[in-house]
Amino acid sequence: MKTIETTVLVTPEGTVTLQLPEDIAPGEHRIVVVIDEQPIVREKRPPLKFPEDRYGPWPEDLSLRREDMYGEWGR
Fold it and tell me: Which residues contact 4 (CB under 8 A, 6 or more apart)?
């Protein structure tokens, strides 16, 4: 016996499409379907707020090329 727990979308026509794992043998099987009476209500989460630091504009002569940052040592 194998137990599979998943969330499905029921269409307005009352149909559900289910993809089973590959290790289920083809043929006739007995299954049990248990449906919660209330559908899942997903609340929209607010966007994540990451900390932000401001250091002003970059220097005019700033170069982020590997050769300029590490010289011959970084190769």
Answer: 20, 21
Contact (Cβ atoms closer than 8 angstroms) between residue 35 and residue 16: no
Chain centroid to Cα 27, Å, comes to 33
Residues 8 and 18 sit within 8 Å (Cβ to Cβ):
yes
Output the six-digit token pair for 64: 């982020």
Q: Decide if 10 contacts 16 (C-beta within 8 A).
A: yes
pLDDT digits (tens, 9 = 90+) for 4-59: 888 888 899 999 988 888 888 889 999 888 888 888 888 899 999 999 999 999 99
DSSP state of 25: P
* pTM score, whole prediction: 0.42
The helices-and-strands tally (H runs, E runs) of the chain is 1, 0
